[in-house]
Design brief:
Layout: H1 6-22, H2 32-39, H3 43-63, H4 75-104, H5 112-135, H6 138-155, E1 179-181, H7 183-204, H8 212-231, E2 239-241, E3 248-252, E4 255-259, H9 270-283, E5 291-293, E6 304-306, H10 314-325, H11 342-354, H12 359-371, H13 381-390, H14 393-408
Length: 419
């Protein structure tokens, strides 16, 4: 079985593909839940190999007359033996991807709950592929099993009904550093995939049910309804706020700084960089919130700067702070507003410059505005920042308050110059 199964020969290539895919993923540094969830995104591309190899094995048994011939083993035993190489293929690429993501993102231990649901999904698609191989010609079952998982894992999440994405067992959009995987999303994916397993085993003939078709239909309907009930209570991102008691808080001058344990280790650059930024901004008498925290924005008070720290390099940390100090107003998302948001970008660039951010990062994020400022109704950015930096503390603070107030009201100031 293992010698002739295509799953064995595909194990190494799929593992390499999945690891390469992980190196292109983006998730918060050092956070195991986000790294594990991001790693499951490879399932959209690789579960098709699992299902197709199971379909190939089923077609081989059917064409050789082995499936319908008399045999001493039960069909359940034969099915389990036949799909084992495919399940192992899926397990290798799933676990390999998760481990690679954890190592690449310095994220520590993977999140076992996400891995468990992903493994159940692999078992489900192995059985669905085996079922397709038994019931359909190989010319139909192989390509359909290569395509079907992609539609389920990648196309369904793109549908307007956002909670449908949580039924698959892939949680690529989770999680920010201040969030944990939503238990309801995990239950939804687990129940849906267990339903697939039960119904597939019945359709294969490996599982006998009393009042067979009625029972199988009832299982399918019940599974869809229960999993949908769990998933419909979750937003497009399957996350919930973490327990705030895990935050590590300390005072930096008059400012309280709170970070999650993943960003507060002895070798982490997050706290030293943030400490230096707070000290520098305080020395310049700039108006900053009295509390900086990595907790989610929804649980923050009005005087708390919610940090969204995804990368560990100092420039990325400074840019995240700049985005928080110059937040994007909600009215900018309205389709009937004419607010361009250029004043927000001017503010972000100035905060980043005031924190000692590099020219390269400024060009990366605001190069379009620096190159052609007049096209967006603003003066030359570099000259403006120099003038603001050379102004008195009172003038600088007044300039910041004026631009921030205009942006909060979704208005662009007529005059950007410092007064």
């Amino acid at each position: 079985m293992l010698r002739i199964s295509p799953a064995v020969w595909l194990t190494l290539p799929t593992l390499i593909l999945s690891i390469l895919y992980v190196t292109k993923a983006i998730y918060p540094n050092n956070y195991g839940v986000a790294a594990t969830a991001g790693a499951t995104s490879s399932m959209a591309f690789l579960v098709g190999f699992v299902a197709a190899t199971a379909a190939w094995e089923a077609a081989r048994l059917r064409r050789g007359g082995i499936w319908d011939a008399p045999h001493t083993r039960s069909r359940l035993e034969i099915t389990i033996i036949a799909v084992t190489p495919s399940v192992l293929l899926g397990a290798v690429f799933l676990f390999g991807t998760v481990v690679a993501a954890s190592v690449y993102g310095q994220a520590g231990m993977p999140e076992i709950r996400i891995v468990a649901v992903g493994f159940v999904a692999i078992c489900a698609w192995s059985l669905l592929g085996f079922l397709a191989g038994l019931r359909l010609p190989m010319s139909v079952s192989l390509p359909s099993m290569l395509l079907a998982p992609f539609l389920w894992f990648a196309f369904v999440p793109a549908l307007p009904v956002e909670w449908l994405r949580h039924l698959s067992g892939m949680y690529r959009d989770c999680c920010r550093i201040g969030a944990d995987i939503a238990p309801a999303a995990l239950f939804a994916g687990l129940i849906m995939n267990v339903t697939f397993i039960v119904v597939a085993l019945y359709a294969i003939g490996a599982l006998r049910m009393r009042w067979s078709r009625t029972a199988a239909t009832a299982v399918l309907v019940a599974g869809v309804m229960i999993s949908s009930a769990f998933a419909s209570n979750v937003g497009p991102i399957p996350e919930v706020a973490r327990d705030r008691s895990a935050l590590k808080c300390s005072m930096v001058g008059a400012t309280e700084l709170c970070l999650w344990p993943e960003h507060d280790g002895p070798t982490s650059v997050f706290r030293p960089t943030l400490n230096a930024v707070i000290v520098a901004l305080t020395r310049e008498d700039l108006p900053i919130p009295s509390r900086w925290s990595e907790e989610l924005a929804g649980s923050s008070s009005g005087d708390t700067l919610s940090l969204d720290l995804w990368k560990s390099d100092p420039d990325a940390i400074r840019w995240s702070i700049a985005q928080g100090l110059a937040p994007w107003p909600a009215c900018s998302e309205s389709p009937d507003t004419s607010f361009s948001g250029s004043s927000i970008d001017v503010l972000r660039g100035w905060w980043f410059t005031a924190m000692g951010g590099s020219e390269a990062m400024l060009q990366e994020n605001l190069g379009w505005l620096i190159a052609e400022p007049s096209a967006f109704g603003v003066p030359p950015i570099k000259e403006l920042y120099s003038a603001v930096g050379a102004a008195s503390v009172a003038s600088r603070v007044a300039w910041l308050e004026r631009l921030t107030s205009s942006a909060a009201e979704c208005q662009s100031p007529e005059n950007y110059s410092v007064q």
